[in-house]
Structure formats: C-alpha cells, structure tokens
Amino acid sequence: MIVNKAYRYRLYPTIEQKIMFAKTFGCARFIYNKMLGDRLDYYKETGKRLNNTPAQYKKEILWLKEVDSLALANAQINLNKAYNNFWSNRKHFGKPCFKSKKTGHASYSTNNQHGSVRIEGNKVKLPKIGWVKLCLHRPLMENSTIKTVTISKTPSGKYYISILVEYENQILPIIPENFLGLDFAMHGLYVASDEDNADYPNFLREAENRLVKAQRKLSKRQKGSRNRDKQRLRVAVLHEKIANQRRDFLHKQARYLADRYDVIGIEDISVKAMAKRKKGGKFSFGKSISDNGWSMFTSMLEYKLAWQGKQLIKIDKWYPSSQLCHVCGYQNNDTKDLSMREWDCPKCGSHHNRDKNAAINIREEARRISA
To answer: Which of 151, 257, 261, 356 has the smallest number of CB atoms closer than 10 Å to its CB?
Structure first.
C-alpha cells in the first residue's frame, strides 16, 4: 500500500532567503484573503458562488509573480476546501476567516515537480528560493518520493520545513494478543489498565509564573517599540519551549505503548466540550485539559499503531466504564459523582480505584470489539 509520511527539519536561511520567505508568506496570505473577500462580495450581490483563481489577479498585481506560483495555488486549494466544507456542513464548519499577519505564525506549501524540491547533503532546493541550509537530523525514507513541502516560521523567528514523502509499504495486520485500556486523566494524561500511570509533568503549570511575569511586561511595553518586539520574542520562546516539552513527552509515551501492545482502547471523549466553561457559572477544566494534550496524544498513538499493523479502538463515550465492576459486572450508578474516587462493589465486595477500574473495563471492551 502507498503510505505518506512527513519529516520536519529546522531551516537556516540567509538574509536574502528570509526576505523571499517573507514575500511568499505575504503573497499566499494576500491571495487567500483577496479571493475570499471577492467570493463573499459576489455572493452578497448575486447569491451565487464565484470560482476565482490566482492567475486572474497576477495581471493587475504584478508582485504576485515574484513568488512561487504553486504557493498561491495551494492557498487557493486551502480556500476551496474551507469554502466547500462550510457550504456542505454549516453546523460543523464555520465560515472561512481572513488570515492575519499579526499572529506571528506564517507558512506556505509548494509541490515537487520534476525535481524542483530535492535534498542534497545538508541543503534543500526550493522553487524561487534556491538551496537552503537545513539540519538533516534523520534521513528520508529510502525509495520515497517527495510530494509536497510546507515552509513555516514560528513566532520565535525559527524556520522549519515539513517534507511529505510517499513510499510503498506492506503493512500486514497482526493477530492481537496484548490489550491495553487507557482512561483519560485530567491531571496525569491517562490511567492504564496494565501499566503505570503517565504522570504528565504539567509543563504549562510549571512555567506559569514565568509566563505571567513575561506577559505582564509585554502588556506594559509601548506598541510599535523595539522593547515590545524584544519582549514579544521572549514570550514566544517560553510558549515554544512548553509546546516542545509537551510534544516530546507525548511522542515518547505513544511510542512506548505502541511497541508493547497490539490493541489499545480509549474513550471517545470530546476534549473541546470538556474544556469549555459550563453554563450557570460552573468552573471549567480548560487549562488542565489543554495542557496535557490528550487529542495530540491519541493522534500520535493511532498512527504509530497503524504503522505496525496494530489498532487503536475508541470506545463509545456513553459506555459506563467508571460504573461497572470489572470483576462481576455490577453497575454502580453512585459513581456518577466524580468526587467518588474509590468504591466497593455491593455485589462481590471488590474494592476499586475509580480510574484503574475504568481502564480495565475499557481494555475488555476493546478486546470484545476487536474479536
């Protein structure tokens, strides 16, 4: 089967290349906003959809010709996807928004056509940019073909390239023998049925005091001043460090579990809904839920398992994993109270830890589904 895999490397462009990157970022953002604005105006006037392309604007806006044409074409593809999603399912997808240059994060994508993108040594060839130095910390997959690349700039001023390659790989599904259940934990990421708890370090909480001080200084800096730009960079570096720590921890945990188990079961919960503040003034767990990165972890776990022919099974969110006794199957409705962390089964007398019992029930449900 044909498999796609992405590799991310750090770029070290020259001053001239940084200028060219900035032009391409700006042109891709401009053409996206311009095409979106014209589509919205055309719909208001006629009630019909407008199919415009970047080529229509190059005749009047000559500086669009200075950058890679495929970067503009990919901006059009992204707009078409967002626009079509909105029209097909308005309840799930919102109306496409204009892109802002003040977010600090910029990116554009281009395609590999007849070797226009290639790697030689510690440099990568990019259209309209030339050879750019990169840190090739790991080689690309052998016998793979570069399909697309995405150039991005972080708020801290670092440049990265994501290279999507395509290769043929025969992944044979295995007969599952080892099963694991994971119960979502708000402060520790997860509680496992047959493993130690994740004990997520809460990187955001640990750096919260430094972030508060840095952001307070930023708020007092005069807009447009050099000191404000320096302080903004300090805040961006702190946020980037927290994100890198979180991503590194999640990658290692997902790799550890994917190598040891054939089938892993998790609850199909809505993290976004849990993070929202409840109506009626009730408290929210938004910061704790967003900090541990459960959605990112499950995505990593899913593709790492799939690469080995293994399986991630999502259990229905209405499955009463916390209420069932994993020994005798008795359902205790009193455990709907989240403050009850331990309980004794009235039927068989077994003593249960709430989260550990739920993880075991999830494991057994995943075993039943995979059979």
So the answer is: 356
